[in-house]
Amino acid sequence: MARPREFDEHQALTAAMQVFWEKGYEATSLSDLTSAMGIQRPSLYSTFGDKESLFQAALSLYAERSLAFIQKKLESAPSAKAAVLLYLQGVVSSADGHRPELGCLCVNTMVELAPHHQGFTQFTRVYQQQITELIQSILEKGKQSGELSETLYAPALASAIVISAVGLAVTMKSNPDITLVEQAVQQIILLLD
Amino acid sequence: MARPREFDEHQALTAAMQVFWEKGYEATSLSDLTSAMGIQRPSLYSTFGDKESLFQAALSLYAERSLAFIQKKLESAPSAKAAVLLYLQGVVSSADGHRPELGCLCVNTMVELAPHHQGFTQFTRVYQQQITELIQSILEKGKQSGELSETLYAPALASAIVISAVGLAVTMKSNPDITLVEQAVQQIILLLD
DNA sequence: TTAGTTTTGTACTGAACAGTACATAATGGT
DNA sequence: ACCATTATGTACTGTTCAGTACAAAACTAA
């Protein structure tokens, strides 16, 4: 009973996510957003609210996709060690259309916005905690199957692995020596032995 | 033979560095800078050039201080393992007036500016390489003294340690569970065994 | 066809931004 | 004492920013 929307909301949000991912929050202008999303300014405001609300929605979408992707990848691995290796390599590699030089939107947000905005502080912390729980669960399974030592303390090790992954995501933004980064990944998974 | 400068250049640059460290590049306005530095706009421009030049100078100052501080700390340690532990704990702890929630200015720059500005890409990469070399050198000494295994591959391990430190610096910006972070540090130094 | 409703496109708003012109003030050299 | 030179403080520039007013357009229900 009214004029129908001419754009797909989910598709537009995905485009916004991509722009924020590439440029960061502050450096992204509303003109950047509207042109990438293919919509006009009033449509953006009526659908997503202001810039910060849109960013929050884009970040949530990113986190949701990222967590699902990581979980699937972890579960596809034949062993705990292989799972962790796949996870860390996924941060570094260009497979799946992933662009390592963009880092991770949640990590980028942790750096740019978390210190000055409590909402993002919590959101990004929870995101990291959730990934840590996924890794921890993989480690527990590895212990149960006998693959990993029973003396291994899964919470701390999972935390160390995810912290390393955060470091990897950031390091990839400075165009590093890939060989050295891959060797570092090999070192980190030695923690599972 | 002219009116003398009424402010200390080094002190003003330190103040600018602090503001950029706290707020990031984009979110820092020239008014933020002039008020923190205690100088007027034309003095800033005549002394430091434009905003980007000032940031570059502040970043260089930070890197210089940071490298010197880390080197001193590493050399003060009684063993390689103690040195690496001191290094990682230094990223996490609030000692020395350090505020872990600000992270590291070079790491922050890697996230915010490196992807879109080649100069900063290179600068931050070199910074990380330099710290990696310091750690590598500590590891080599540890091997020579017999503290560390001779089979240990110092370049990759040093890289892994610094990447982990980058992850720690970022993680500290999301107000994490400190106990868990410290446990993660304990895991990382297990790589030296 | 028409009334009611929501979206769209254009064009605007005031505020904040980085950077600068210019007059005044403060020094050292002569 | 006075001039050349450099720093300072004020006030301004044009531009870009996030956000919005408004009218035209596109639809449904009756």
TrEMBL record, chains A, B:
The keyword Transcription regulation applies. Residues 29-48 bind DNA. InterPro entries: Homeodomain-like_sf, HTH_TetR, Tet_transcr_reg_TetR-rel_C_sf, TetR_C. PROSITE patterns: HTH_TETR_2. Residues 6-66 form the HTH tetR-type domain. Gene3D superfamilies: Homeodomain-like, Tetracycline Repressor, domain 2. The keyword Disulfide bond does not apply. Keywords: DNA-binding, Transcription, Transcription regulation. It holds the Pfam family TetR_N. One of its GO terms (molecular function) is DNA binding. PANTHER family: HTH-TYPE TRANSCRIPTIONAL REGULATOR YJDC, TRANSCRIPTIONAL REGULATORY PROTEIN. This is TetR/AcrR family transcriptional repressor of nem operon. It comes from Paenibacillus phyllosphaerae. The lineage of its organism: Bacteria, Bacillati, Bacillota, Bacilli, Bacillales.
